[in-house]
């Protein structure tokens, strides 16, 4: 924990939309009288039919979350049409290609035309309001067009990260019974092609075995690389776009009509379809984007996330476009052509606000300061981070070297489930402490509880809950409301449980300490240990597997796997490599194990429950403090695990 404080500086305060006084006043109103507060701020977006009801939410019983429920609006209209009269020629999207010599600017007028045409293509091929459309795309503007086109006609999009395997894509297609897929021939990252269309073809075969038949695939041509083609099913985007009108009226959507599904990992089972709806989500994404980044009209804003994650949804597409911002979309990777790419792009496009992940900061910090200092970065005004706790060393480097001690570092804590920022500094209002996400956003009521659910007051360390609803909150798990209740509202009755541990210091600052459940955070990507375990045991030589996280200097957490083989088989380096390959194929490269330990047995209680606490300690090379092992069925197992540990100091 760092004890340093960085007070709000004069220049930051001078232009800030929210200062300390306003923060305190607004915050108080937002939690004392949410109806009044959100009734006012809900009007930041345009409504076809204004709402008369604001908040109607309950965290008990069947759990029901409704905001602005009798209002009608359209997300695509709010992100595009309403800006056209005065800002049609303003750049909406700056696209920076993987290749540093290729970029493109898309104005709001052009965005309107692309989105309308794409919406008409969807309609032409039978997509209707409420249908689920899967989007499996690289970071190209067409990914944003696809999302907005769905929103325009009321279709529900499910964006699947382009780094996921065909298996993972198939699982997501099947879960929401999506029969229309939008993809691309190939993606391009760091000069290497990513076979998105081929992956899609494989996924469609897998999905068909589970009785979900994809009937149309709309394919954007990016590289021109060779791919398979199913006539009648596969459609070229550029050909289809030419056949339809450049105008498509936005459908009137109820505030609580679904906008999108986004799959995310939990501590058990397969990934859950987090469902977000229309009105509350957009109000919250737009409002947080404006105040947290202190966004002023004309600023150039860059979030380096992928649209396949929630950060890309809320802070590349929906929040910025609803605010008529200029949002930069980057196709490539931070280390191509070299580790100076981010800073080069910042200079090239005069980026004012930059938002990235601690894992990227740590890895670029390791590359040395020269990559940074050879650029000017004089356009930068604000630096944001998201995805995992940022260690104070990385924070300081980001602040001192990247930001030249001039730009506040805004550490935003939130989740796929929360739709937008929850605990975060506001640049003009919050004195910063490196490593702390600081204070709750408007309307957010955090609470720390111990394992028994007792509420902890003052300075304390506990489990982070949120006690009342905010407009951006997820509404349900798609197709499984019971799982929604079980996952988030049953551990601590009547409270939303985040799954994160957190400390509150004597100044009331919040410090997120990481997940307290069986979810890993690897390079800012969420992964369930159960998912990796099930990928491992699907290999024919593996009889049992247990997966835990361990501290990793760049990734935050590394993936440590204990694997028990089928009788008669021996572990080897070749088999290790094969298992890594197998997990990559089952889930995707982000899930590749870092360490594999072959273990003849796993530590289990007499009732057969794996004792993960012990496995975590051994993976951390901290087995001096294994705690009570007397309940183990076979204590000898532990000695073998320690002797063969893979993280020996
Ligand atoms: C972690 C990403 C510390 C946390 C937006 C959370 C963070 C999970 C931070 C959600 C942060 C995210 N400081 N931890 N600033 N931001 N996390 O759903 O464990 O991909 O529960 O959403 O990431 O990950 P998700």
Question: What would your notes on this structure say?
Answer:
By secondary structure, the protein is of the alpha/beta class. It is built from 20 helices and 31 strands. The strands form 8 sheets. The chain has an 8-stranded mixed beta sheet with strand order 12-11-8-6-7-14-15-24, with helices on both faces. β4 and β5 (103-107) form a beta hairpin. α4 crosses α6 and α4 (75-87) packs across α11 (310-322). The chain starts with 9 loop residues before the first helix and ends in a 6-residue tail after the last helix. Bound molecules: 5'-O-[(S)-ethoxy(hydroxy)phosphoryl]adenosine (WTA). 5'-O-[(S)-ethoxy(hydroxy)phosphoryl]adenosine is lined by residues 264, 309-311, 386-389, 411-416, 437, 498-500, 512, 514-515, 521, 526.
Query: Taking Cα atoms only, what radius of gyration do you get, to the nearest Å?
Result: 24 Å
Shape: globular
Strand content: 15-25%
Which hetero compounds are present in the coordinates? 5'-O-[(S)-ethoxy(hydroxy)phosphoryl]adenosine
Alpha-carbon distance between the termini? 24 Å
The share of residues in helices is 25-40%
Strand order of the largest sheet: 12-11-8-6-7-14-15-24
Summarize the structure.
With 649 residues, the protein is an alpha/beta fold. Helix 2 (20-32) crosses helix 3, helix 7 (166-175) packs across helix 8 (196-209) and helix 13 (358-366) packs across helix 15. The protein is globular.
